[in-house]
Amino acid sequence: MGFPARMCTLLLLSAILAHPAFASPPCYDELDADAHSLQIAETVYQMDWMEYTCDAGAMGWSPAHTDISEWTCEYATGSNYRWTYSNGSSTANVTELGRSVVADECETHELSTGCVAFSSDWHGLQAAESAYYTDNNEYSCDLTGYWAPAYTGPSQWSCNSAGLDGYEWTFTSGVGEEYALDETDTVDCSDKWKCTAGGFDGDTTEIDEVVDTNSVPHNLTLEVAGNGKIFWPAPVNVSGLNLTAIVSIGSNFISVDTSEYGNLDKAANVTIYDLPYLRQPVAYRNGATCTTHCPYISYLGGDYSFGVAGFSNYTAGPNAALEVYDDNDAQGGSQGKDLGEDIRFFANYSNVTSGAPVTDALGSCSITFSAAPAGPHAMSYNSTSRLWEYNRTFAGGPVSWSVSCTSPTYEPLALGDTLNFPSLLGASAPSGVANITKFAEGRYDYSGGIANETTEGGNVTGYILTGNESTEKWAGYYGNVTAWKVLGLDESRLMYDWSWDVLYGGEVCASTGTTFDWSSLASVAGTDVDGVWGFDSSGSDSANRTLTTEASYAIADHSGTTNGTYTYDGSGAGAWQTFALGDGSGFAPGNKNGLAFCVNMSGTQTAFTGDPHMFQLMVATNEAPGTYESYYFFLELD
After folding, report:
1. Which CATH architecture is the domain 320-427 placed in?
2. Chain segment 410-446, per-residue pLDDT in tens
3. Is the distance from CB of 347 to CB of 405 less than 8 angstroms?
4. Backbone phi, then psi, for 264, in 5-degree steps?
5. CA 305, CA 281: separation in Å to the nearest integer?
6. What's the CA gap between 207 and 216, in Å, rounded?
């Protein structure tokens, strides 16, 4: 019987890889084996013909790991010979007296788990068919009592035919590969190396069940539940790869290192899970918007799927951008307008990929102030400036303000700012943070196994169960601060600045709004925080059971005591004291903007990660599923 098509492919792959010199120089063991076989062939030929020869065909020699064209016979006589080999950095010198080989050490690889299991059971099946034939003078599809697969499943094997002259069976791997084999076939796994793919779950392809890792069948999938998925529609070579080290699927981040592993640099479908956007997002490749080469597939329930032509790293973001400023900001001309003067406020709501404005035909914007009348007030679209605008006067300040824009097509966005007046610039208060650069994000994810126990009727068993669950009431921030003390009117008009170091001291504070009034501060109890966020004060992670230590503060020319708690450093010791403050206007249920969470900065402590950082802070969050909390940060530098 002839070789089945799939088996021919297996053998052809083996034959191709048996001559790697076309692609790269052989390693030491491969070259030394060919040099040794050459010596044996010359010795046998000399014993038969009383002389050595340069004719490889005449002495029946064919190298197993190199190509014959890379070998040169310098001479061959009745008493001696010399052959040389050269391919890149690999060289050899072979004579009747010995051989010398120069080449890199050979890499060692484990063989494909799926191929080894397939090969082992096939050899067992062949032995069983032979035994059956000895007993019955024919082969059989029913080998009960003779054979059962030890490493694969019985349902993976099907007998196509069996009789006096032979037999044929088909094996189907766990990923759909099919191999038809008869009594003459063998399974060669020597070129099919094991692929490692730990840390993935969900719909991830069962890599350990793949037979031919040089060409994983269609639909190779890697997934991390809750984060995302990669799907390659065409066959991919993963032989010898550690996919755990090459592929990263994190929160709104998918990356494949193709700098050394071009095998994976192929077209694929990428899905990023659990995005918060209300409108179709935009894909980013290496931080730049990717539209032409990242065709949209779908966006359903926060899961965004798009195609990619190849790999680097991919993230997703809103399809709109929002910039806000007023007459006193640099973008507005740094006009230095004061109390009683008419001040204009601007919002640039635009398409994030093209930069085109979202006009009044496509959406709307409104503005809200900390000073009465607070609003929201409708902003007007100016077709000349291509900005949304609003203007008004104020009798006091500073004034916090925020803009909210929405559209049926573009992502609704909100952004705030603070209006300062020249006559009030001397007032002491923490300053808003201009820029935030995120370097890490994650949440508690239990990675251990799920405990279980077997019992039977009539048993009564006592247990102590141990486990953890992530809080939904609190979030954490940690990191570093870059800042200066300055003298001037605004960012573009500075008279002088002083470099600030954390050793001078200072505080980091966070509030859900930009309207926190720093002119007077109040102590806050844990029950106050519970009331504002609607927490059950009797809950184990309520603010009432969290903010249980007295904390002293000195912020914005005010000092006093309030309530807080210590978060842990890298050793697990309480080191960073988060404390809560209320503003002078008071706080009540629903008025989150009247609360701030603060921490004193330090240059001598480690964060909970064990790394040195300048601050570590806990803040309250909305515990309802699928909700998000926006925090604004303030700095006070000593």
Report:
1. Sandwich (2.60)
2. 999 999 898 888 876 544 567 666 556 655 566 656 5
3. yes
4. -90, 0
5. 10
6. 9
